[in-house]
Structures are given as C-alpha cells and as structure tokens.
C-alpha cells in the first residue's frame, strides 16, 4: 500500500512539474480567471439588483459595519469610515441648502488631494449629482479659466466647488463665471470677495443625519457618475463620461490583483484622474480598506511614508517609478511592507531596476483608458508586459488587433472594406467591440471626438468597435505589450518608428535623464523625422559622441533621432505623461527655439550644434537626411 501511495504521489508531482514546464503561468492564469469570473458575477448582480446598489452604497455599508475603522490617513490625522460618512452628509446638506442642488445636476470640483475631496464627492453622490473632476495642480489664472470653461460648457455644470488655495485664481476669472451663471463655493469659512460663497461655515452648522435614498432614486448603473478629463498628451483634454457601471468595473482592479480589506493603499496620484480616483479611492471603498492620502507624489518621502503608515499597496503612473529609481540610494530601501504596486507606463529597464533595488514587489502593470471598453492586467511577474490574453477575458470583452497604416493614420482594409487582423507578434491597433457588456459612452459635449473613437465595419459589416488609438502586440506566450500611441509613432524612410522604444535607448546614455521622442516635418520630405527633447542628468553636459554611439549601436538608421533639443524640464500633464503637441509644432528651427539644439552628423560621427547654417542646408537639401 505504501509503495502504491509513493508511486501515485510521485506521478502527481511529475505531472504537476510537467504542466508547470509546459504552461509556466497556469497557476497565475487560473487564479486570475477565477477572480475575474467572481467579479463578473458581482457586476451582473449589481446591474440587476433593485434599487440600484452603487459604490456609495458600498461605502455606507462599510461605515455601518465598521464605523471606527480608519478610512483615510492624511497629514498625521486618521479619518474613520463613520467620520467621513457624517462629514459627507453635512456637506451634502450644506450644498443642498445653499445651491438647491437636485438629482442629476453636475458639479465641477477643483479640489486638491485632501479628505475634503473624498467627502465632497460622497456628498454629491448622496444627492445623485455627477461630479466633473478637473483640477490641474498648476491651474491658475488663464489655465483655470480654460478648465472652468471645459467643466461648465461640456458638462453643463452650474456650480463650482473650489479649494481655498485657488481663491486668487478664481477672483481673476470671476467676471466670466458670473456671466455664465456659475455659482462658486469656496472651501473656506470666510471670504470677502463678492460672488464667492463660503462652504465650510455652512458645513459646520449642517446636520450629519443620513440622507434619504429618494434623493437619488432615479440613478441607475448606466447613469453618469463622473466626468473625468483625459490628460491631454496629444491635444486638448476631453471630458470622458464615466457611468456607475464603469466605476464598479474600475474599482474591481484591486480585487483582481489580490488586494484585501487588510491592506493599506498609498494614493499620491491626483484624485481628479482615473488612476487615483477609480483604481485607488473607489477600489479602496470596494475593498473596505484604509488609504494613506498624500497631496502629491514625493520621491524623497515615499519610502519613509510607506514605513511610517505600514503601506502594503502602492500606486504608480507614468514616470513616478523612475523618479523613485533616480532617488539617492539608502540602506533602508528594502525595509518596508509594500507587496504590490499597481499602475501603468513603467519602462522595462526601470521595472527591473525597481524590483532589484526595492525588493520583491509584485508589479501589476495595467493597460486601460478612462473612456475605453477594454483593458489588461499583467498579473504575472513577466517584466515589460501590460497583460495577458485569456479566453474568459476575450469572451466577455471582445477585442482584436488590426493592421494599421501609420502614414495614413487609418486601419488597413481589404477589398471588402473590412479591417485585417494583425498576426501574432505583429504590432496592430487595439480595438474593443462595443457591446452591452462593454459599452463606449463617449465624451461630454463633444460628438465629433466621440465619433472619431467609433470604428465601424471592422470584422464584419455593421459591427462597431472602440478605437483605442494605441498600438499593441501579442506574443507567442499570450503576453500583451504596449508599443505606442497612434500619432506618437511616426513613419520615416518607409519605416514605422515607435517613440517609446527610441526613448528607452536614449535614456540609457548616462548624461540623459529623460527623453520625449516625436517626429517633425521636414520641407520636401515625406513622413516625419525623429527628434527628441531631453533633460540632462544633474551635473552632466550633453555627451555628443556618447549619444551618437548609443543610437547608432542600438537603433536602425531610420529610427535614430536626427535632432536633439536640450530642455531644463519636460512639459508634463498632471499625471506625469509627456506632452508632444507644442514640440512637434515648434520643429527644429534654431532661429525660433531658444533651447540648445543638436544635429546628428553621420560624416563627423557625432551630434553637432544645430546652427542656422545647418538648418538652411537641410531646408535647401544640401544636407541629405
């Protein structure tokens, strides 16, 4: 009997070992698929349940279950679920009385990362009012004017809630706001400026009794919950309509990554953006967990914060992880409790350095868009991937990669007018099928931009897909890799150039700290030639020869940036994404650009200062590109 038991055990171990060899990610796939199915069942339940069960209801249930549990840690103070609930009720009653808010009235929020942001949003949710989240931390004067125009025009908001630090900026645009009939509420107890209403004094006098659910009786899963503005990397921001269904789906990302109610989540990304609000705050409410909130990201304070507040889950986006890797090394870097990092946009080399330097942190790289209907999560330890293809995900949220003409900036179609699917390993445009399970709502007050994102007759006549505008690749192991954004990728010498790949090569040069790569037009030439705006490592000069050797060694001739622009800093969005539009428009004319410019000279085998003489020679085609 013992012999048979030994044989069976041995065979089982061999079988498991064989399966592990044949399917190295089987365990992670199964775990993720099971989690996804459970979350999918919950979402279906929320769609059908009456009365509608929103994320607000989830928060209220948590406040009833554990009112004394800490919800938000902020600047040395803890705010419990019960306390935030009562404060949001006071805020709701104050707004209701002062502004006569009713269900469906959009309210624009210009609030910083502080607890008042959270309970003001909860207050609006209790009144059934969608919030337009549109604060850039640098919005003052003209910028605030533009932002308020977006919020009030696109979302039809007639009320504006502003944090006290923006009072001076609001005063500058107050005449315009008055003309538009916009009522301004300042989160302050006093204000001597006529036309600006204070709110904190009214909140302090209001009752904290629960509000009737009748105030939001008509809100359902397809109702608008939020307006979140795109970051504006390739143009002006657009107000993405975020329904309650989308809020639920985004809040499930933490659960899909294995986050529990016992975790402590660090939010230092802006709450006005989908990452901080939907994945961070909404996800924390869905989990019933504690969050540590910081006004803004600080690389120097990050790990001290993690240790002090026992952070177990961190969030990153864009360049934040690179900022951490560029910070001075300390002996205590691995002395923390962080086990998971959730975010997107990290480069492969930074990812490797981050894990090696700060410990065995599970990096959960995402691919998603605020307005999109398709997303991925890399739930494995595969560095560089943004997700995996699996049959369950594809069944519920149909998508495909299609061939895309970079030069014409349009999908490649066959003789029947249908799109052509990209082959495995080939870069293609990601499109998500628009269905009841995966809708695309569009942008508020912008039918033209909404229609541009709709792609018809993709795989069969009459079908409708969401055009992500992103180029991705699926490899033989079913991993998904982000390649570039349409418009960022450019075509030169008949070849496609992915700006992200060129940037990765440039930042390997010791003197280059950051690189923003784009294509510029050259008179008399087809396509766009490569150019990069870079900032230098502190204390370093631009290494002309070293940079030349780097790009020649690792990039084909057509992908090498022929022009380098040295800047003191790169223009970023509020979520650390690089802006390109102005750089593309300015081109490489040294007579118009004050920054130092360099030109890749293949004859001298180095980068040389770009003079007006060289510029004229390029324009007259004496210098061939």
Please write out the topology.
Blueprint: H1 2-22, H2 26-48, H3 55-65, E1 70-74, E2 77-80, H4 81-99, E3 107-110, H5 115-126, E4 131-133, H6 142-154, E5 159-163, H7 167-179, E6 183-187, E7 196-198, H8 200-205, E8 224-229, E9 239-243, H9 244-256, E10 264-267, H10 274-287, E11 290-293, H11 302-308, E12 313-317, H12 320-326, E13 340-344, H13 348-358, E14 362-367, E15 376-377, E16 387-388, H14 391-396, E17 399-402, E18 404-405, E19 410-411, E20 428-433, H15 447-452, E21 454-456, E22 464-474, E23 479-485, E24 490-492, E25 495-497, H16 499-506, E26 512-520, E27 529-536, H17 544-554, E28 563-566, H18 581-586, E29 597-601, E30 606-609, H19 612-619
Parallel strand pairs: 1-11, 3-4, 3-5, 4-8, 5-6, 6-7, 10-11, 12-13, 13-14, 27-28
Antiparallel strand pairs: 1-2, 8-9, 14-15, 16-23, 17-20, 18-19, 20-22, 21-22, 22-23, 24-25, 26-27, 28-29, 29-30
Helix pairs in contact: 2-9, 4-5, 6-7, 9-10, 12-13
């Amino acid at each position: 009997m013992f012999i048979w038991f030994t044989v069976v055990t041995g065979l089982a171990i061999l079988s498991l070992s064989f399966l592990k060899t044949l399917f190295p990610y089987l365990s992670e796939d199964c775990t993720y698929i099971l989690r996804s199915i459970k979350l999918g069942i919950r979402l279906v339940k929320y769609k059908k349940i009456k009365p509608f069960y929103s994320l607000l209801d989830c928060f209220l249930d948590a406040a009833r279950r554990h009112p004394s549990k800490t919800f938000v840690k902020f600047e040395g103070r803890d705010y419990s679920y019960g306390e935030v609930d009562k404060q949001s009720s006071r805020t709701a009653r104050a707004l209701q009385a002062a502004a006569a808010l009713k269900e469906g009235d959009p309210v624009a929020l210009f609030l910083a990362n502080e607890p008042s942001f959270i309970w003001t949003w909860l207050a609006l949710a209790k009144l059934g009012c969608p919030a337009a989240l549109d604060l850039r931390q640098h919005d003052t004067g003209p910028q605030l004017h533009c932002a308020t125009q977006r919020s009030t025009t696109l979302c039809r908001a007639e009320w504006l809630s502003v944090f006290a630090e923006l009072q001076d900026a609001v005063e500058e645009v107050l005449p315009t706001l008055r003309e538009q009939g916009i009522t301004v509420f300042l989160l302050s107890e006093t204000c001597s400026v006529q036309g600006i209403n204070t709110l904190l004094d009214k909140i302090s006098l209001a009752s904290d009794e629960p509000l009737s659910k009748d105030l939001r009786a008509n809100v359902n899963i397809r109702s608008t919950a939020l307006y979140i503005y795109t970051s504006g990397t390739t143009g002006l921001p657009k107000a993405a309509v975020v329904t309650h269904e989308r809020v639920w789906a985004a809040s499930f990302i933490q659960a899909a990554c294995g986050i529990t109610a016992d975790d402590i989540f660090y939010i230092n990304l802006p709450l006005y953006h989908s990452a901080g609000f939907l994945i961070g705050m909404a996800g924390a409410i869905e989990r019933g967990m504690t969050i540590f909130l910081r006004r803004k990201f600080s690389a120097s304070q990050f790990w001290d914060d993690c240790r002090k507040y026992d952070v177990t889950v961190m969030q990153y986006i864009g360049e934040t992880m690179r900022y951490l890797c560029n910070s001075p090394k300390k002996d205590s870097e691995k002395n923390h409790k962080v086990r998971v990092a959730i975010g997107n946009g990290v480069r492969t080399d930074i990812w490797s350095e981050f894990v090696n330097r700060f410990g065995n942190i599970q990096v959960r790289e995402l691919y998603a868009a605020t307005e999109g209907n398709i997303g991925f999560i890399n739930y494995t330890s595969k560095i560089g991937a943004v997700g995996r293809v699996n049959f369950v995900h594809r069944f519920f949220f149909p998508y495909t990669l299609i061939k895309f003409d970079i030069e014409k900036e349009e999908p490649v179609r066959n003789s029947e007018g249908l799109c052509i699917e990209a082959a495995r390993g080939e870069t293609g445009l990601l499109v998500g099928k628009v269905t009841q399970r995966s809708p695309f709502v569009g942008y508020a007050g912008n039918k033209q931009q909404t229609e541009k994102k709709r792609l018809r007759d993709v795989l069969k006549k009459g079908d409708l897909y969401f055009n992500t505008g992103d180029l991705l690749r699926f490899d033989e192991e079913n991993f998904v890799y982000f390649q570039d954004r349409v418009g960022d990728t450019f075509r030169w010498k008949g070849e496609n150039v992915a700006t992200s790949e060129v940037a990765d090569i440039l930042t390997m040069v010791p003197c280059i700290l950051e690189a923003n790569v784009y294509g510029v037009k050259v008179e008399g030439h087809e396509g766009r030639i490569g150019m990069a705006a870079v900032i230098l490592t502190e204390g370093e000069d631009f290494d002309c020869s070293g940079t030349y050797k780097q790009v020649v060694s690792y990039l084909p001739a057509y992908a090498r940036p022929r022009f380098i622009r040295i800047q003191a800093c790169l223009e970023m969005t509020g979520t650390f994404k690089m802006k390109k539009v102005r750089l593309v428009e300015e081109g490489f004319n040294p007579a118009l650009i004050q920054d130092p410019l360099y030109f890749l000279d293949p004859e001298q085998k180095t980068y040389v200062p770009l003079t007006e003489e060289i510029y004229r020679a390029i324009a007259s085609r004496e210098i061939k590109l």
